[in-house]
Design goal:
The structure holds 2 protein chains of 2 kinds. By secondary structure, chain A is an all-alpha fold. Chain A has a single domain (50-248), classed as MetI-like fold, CATH 1.10.3720. In chain A, 86% of the residues lie in helices and 0% in strands. The radius of gyration of chain A is 22 Å and the shape is globular. By secondary structure, chain B is an alpha/beta fold. Chain B has a domain at 4-66 and 135-224: Rossmann fold (3-Layer(aba) Sandwich). In chain B, 32% of the residues lie in helices and 24% in strands. Chain B has 7 helices and 10 strands. Chain B has helices at 42-50, 82-87, 95-104, 120-133, 150-167, 178-184, 214-225, and strands spanning 4-13, 16-19, 22-26, 31-35, 57-61, 67-70, 138-142, 170-175, 187-192, 197-203. In chain B, a hairpin with a 2-residue loop joins strand 1 (4-13) and strand 2 (16-19). Chain B starts with a strand and ends in a 13-residue tail after the last helix. The chains are: A mainly alpha, B alpha/beta. The interface between A and B is medium-sized, with 17 and 25 residues. The structure holds adenosine-5'-triphosphate and magnesium ion (MG). The site of adenosine-5'-triphosphate has 12 residues of chain B, from helix 1.
Amino acid sequence: MGTSTRGIWPALSLLALVAIWVGAAAVADAEKLPGPVDVWRALLAQVETSGYFFHLGITLARVAAAFLIAMAIGSAIGIALGVSDVANRVFSGWLLLFLNLPALVTIILCYVWFGLNEAAAVTAVAINKIPNVAVTLREGARALSKDLAEMAAIYRFDFSTRLRHVILPQLAPFFAVAARNGLALVWKIVLVVELLGRSNGVGYQLYLYFQQWDVATILAYALGFIVIVQAIELAILARWERYANRWRR
Amino acid sequence: MSGLRVAIRGRSFGDKSVLGEIGFDLEPGERLALLGPSGIGKSTLLGIIAGTDTGFEGTVTRPDGRIAVVFQTPRLLPWRTLAENIAVVPGAGDLDRARSLLAEVGLGEACDMHPERVSLGMQRRAALVRALAVDPALLLLDEPLVSLDPQSVGAMRDLLTFAMDRTGATVVMATHDRREALALTDRIVELGGTPARLVSDRKSPLGRDARRDPRQVDDVYREWFEPDSFEPGGGAAA
Ligand SMILES: Nc1ncnc2c1ncn2[C@@H]1O[C@H](COP(=O)(O)OP(=O)(O)OP(=O)(O)O)[C@@H](O)[C@H]1O
Ligand SMILES: [Mg+2]
């Protein structure tokens, strides 16, 4: 298949989905399933009167903060566990516990302990993601090449050279996986966090319009959200992955 | 300048004893071949000499200065180009120096390519250049000619001679190829038995010029090894 035709397929399949949506909306109760035009109108109304982009932006900021914190702390924990057998034996049980802790429990506890504020919200999201990042990076650290470590020792690589040229490139694919999975998770949890304890952001807006049974506005927020997530995936993650893999055959 | 002194009493992995008592001294600049069949413990012994393996009994005294190893597999960083692989080594100089060193061994065209995109023979050469670049006092070579095609073997052998002459390093080269050993080194020890010990330790009668002549190598080869002439994989120099 040529690259030109391959590029068309996702577009066609998306178009088919929109067609099905239009068809279903024509048959269904307009209040329960509004069509694309109604959703577009709702979106414009939000932009004009209710600060659509403000809410998207604030959610985005929370996602970014939680994501960065979780990647940093989760990677540090994961690498430490992967490198040190003792650390792994002592702490892998904790990791399992946090991995299986329901997101809702973390969120509630964070709000109870730290108050209904921004820090608690971001912390709650980050805590939910840290164990996943840690597990992924632990695998990466375990898979570090002994051969290359020996080479680096023989040739007297100093710490920063070792980190930059030997260790981090080996961990790059694991960072990518953690980032990808982590982003998907953070997007979902951040909405719940907003719904439970914030008075702005997409999660809060969804809650608001859920109470008014306004499906068109809810879909308008969902669509904006999906577009942003995809844009970030394609513009940042995919590009970075391609760069990190440029040396492969 | 001091040479290399090896006095190993033993090395085992779990309850499997791989190396027995092994001792030899090398003068500064002396070149030793470590002969033995596959699996006997040559790489293990080189690891001990290099200092990466510390789980042995005995002592190793190394010459002052840097150590360089050309490993059995090239061990280049796959995410760095050949030139970068050399330039990242502390003390090896900058990218320009790396490029000109690579050009000297015929890798001028390939110096900005990543290792996985060039042949094994080219990766080997780059690994040898990395070793050269740090101007080592002790150079360890682990089967530098294995699994190369006959043409590359010839070129690589010349290159090894060039590298050893250039650095003047004390050299230990592991190999299972006796002709190769005769063509490249001053002294040849053979490992044998389990656990492995030195079963012979002979100075080569061939001087550094004489050993470049395949016929003279052949003569010594016949004299030394002919009684047990069967040697799988040998004869690469023929
Ligand atoms: N880390 C290890 N753990 C257990 N056994 C090992 C280890 N390293 C080496 N050995 C064993 O020691 C023996 C010698 O291995 P070594 O790699 O030194 O042989 P070699 O002479 O270099 O062989 P080759 O010519 O195939 O490279 C082998 O039987 C191998 O299984
Ligand atoms: Mg070996």
